[in-house]
Amino acid sequence: xxxxxxxxxxxxxxxxxxxxxxxxxxxxxxxxxxxxxxxxxxxxxxxxxxxxxxxxxxxxxxxxxxxxxxxxxxxxxxxxxxxxxxxxxxxxxxxxxxxxxxxxxxxxxxxxxxxxxxxxxxxxxxxxxxxxxxxxxxxxxxxxxxxxxxxxxxxxxxxxxxxxxxxxxxxxxxxxxxxxxxxxxxxxxxxxxxxxxxxxxxxxxxxxxxxxxxxxxxxxxxxxxxxxxxxxxxxxxxxxxxxxxxxxx
Amino acid sequence: xxxxxxxxxxxxxxxxxxxxxxxxxxxxxxxxxxxxxxxxxxxxxxxxxxxxxxxxxxxxxxxxxxxxxxxxxxxxxxxxxxxxxxxxxxxxxxxxxxxxxxxxxxxxxxxxxxxxxxxxxxxxxxxxxxxxxxxxxxxxxxxxxxxxxxxxxxxxxxxxxxxxxxxxxxxxxxxxxxxxxxxxxxxxxxxxxxxxxxxxxxxxxxxxxxxxxxxxxxxxxxxxxxxxxxxxx
Amino acid sequence: xxxxxxxxxxxxxxxxxxxxxxxxxxxxxxxxxxxxxxxxxxxxxxxxxxxxxxxxxxxxxxxxxxxxxxxxxxxxxxxxxxxxxxxxxxxxxxxxxxxxxxxxxxxxxxxxxxxxxxxxxxxxxxxxxxxxxxxxxxxxxxxxxxxxxxxxxxxxxxxxxxxxxxxxxxxxxxxxxxxxxxxxxxxxxxxxxxxxxxxxxxxxxxxxxxxxxxxxxxxxxxxxxxxxxxxxxxxxxxxxxxxxxxxxxxxxxxxxxxxxxxxxxxxxxxxxxxxxxxxxxxxxxxxxxxxxxxxxxxxxxxxxxxxxxxxxxxxxxxxxx
Lengths: 249, 233, 321
Hints:
Chain C: Its main location: membrane. The complex is a heterotrimer. Chain B is an alpha/beta fold.
């Protein structure tokens, strides 16, 4: 059952076609990767999927409903949550209060929202930091906070925009099981990533966007061996490392 | 070329750098590696004069630089390409580059601009484009190009591979190797351990404000402890 | 809503309620006008402090409340209390309308601030021009002392009324701040896009904030009219009140429950003190209090950006460590 279906999405900015007839699907409970060079249009595509930008053409269907014209907060209510590449915690609030903002979507009472926030914090490994000021978190902590906030909205689909950027290999290694566990309890995930270590380890399926168009799609190993993908995105060094079984690009 | 002895620095009550010793000699690429939050950016801020050192010495080409203003440090030829590109988004590529020679290298600005465009042909194509509309990789090239405009005697690169696709990361490291081959010593501050140690002469691992490990890059590369901690292997 | 959030505020107000025992009529008058400004500032605080939408035109709500109650009493014989209620409702409506026009047009930050200033100015000019509002001559509310007319010759009684209203708004602010609405206000303030992605209807939140803000500041306008019994376009819709509520909140701590009240009292207190001190030395210096307001604003922004309440909170945290 396809949870998210994007059909022929395009987005034009004046003379620039940033996204050109892109299609993808995310199955119920699936973990799908979206990779591609910088400037390929990945974040624009995310904005189209999450409602921050209207498409110039194409359709977005979520759980059978056409959401192409829906605003972001309505999509969140329907079960699609999104994180941002540049992480901005709500400054001045504690970690717990930050996560509670997400929890309030489906729980009006403060006690319920707080309880959910604490549970979600534990899930992403932020339980010891609940009372800390969000602005005091390290980069890795902020990424987990971003994840927690979105999770607190109890989504069916999580759109993660480079949630691993800026993390070093051991931090990436630590957060991979967290993401896997989230998928394990039924939340589908679509992630934009450059960190091939994560893409290879986590994704069932990968889409490759370059110059605004989908140039490849398939299981990670297949896609990483595709010469077009190597040319446009991976480079031979990284491709060789991946093929040799190492997972560090 | 660059010598650091017993460097201590921090913010308010928090001490981040607890006594660092290191050196970069002519023609070397020195890699400073470490996790997030250990003090890599703090170190760069101190070296470029933005944050004052609390204790210790910084010598550049024999001259004492600790306590010098950022402008004086730039004039001396110690150029810092900051983390996260920090290009000026509402100015075009050419204007960004020209600003690089604001303090140092102005007399030869036209020649340097030409050199940068030769090194980065993509920037020449986009010379009149607003820097904010460039892609991440192009912005990184612009930031490095801007640093080059100041005719550096030593270039500090702060996480140049951050947020770049694997192909661009490879291109970036190839570029760094090329710049160094032309004789420019480079201090590379990075999280990408594998590729950094591949091009570096020597490496320092920063942990908790001190250098936990240091040595020739080849030795570090094969160190099992390093592989375990930083590569998760 | 924890006791800790409201107890200090209620304590301060309780102390002020004792003022009639010791203070002269002049001092009580001063306290009264400071508290009316404090109430207006409490309104600003909800929109500018909690929701982060800085307004330079809160005079628009203040004046609407003042004129509404004055006109209703003078032209339509409406009772002053009903005038207060209608004034509040009109203030909220004007707030909603300004919000609808501005927020739908995606105005943020400086643009929104300037647009609010423009609205206030337009209202001032209109009030100056039309007969309904008394034109340039203004309106005089007929003096008819008595609780039924919301006119209290006894300063103490009026003081207690205003204190009660300030206390009620204090409790309302604490209640909002501690619940879902408060969390959403702050989220919209800190990062509107992130908030939207988490399911917050940012437009609805901002409209709610500006309507509530308008109503509260309008109440202050009504009370001002009842206190002085005279208003004209410059008093009602003049920039003086827009500026005072803004500085009061920044000084006291915007986005805190008690900030606007502390700020208004401190601001006016400092102004009066300066006037008295200088009077003794150099005779009356017109505008000295305004100069002082400006200086205090600069000092606050430079050294205490979170205001007095923020500074106290930081000190408390430092002590706890």
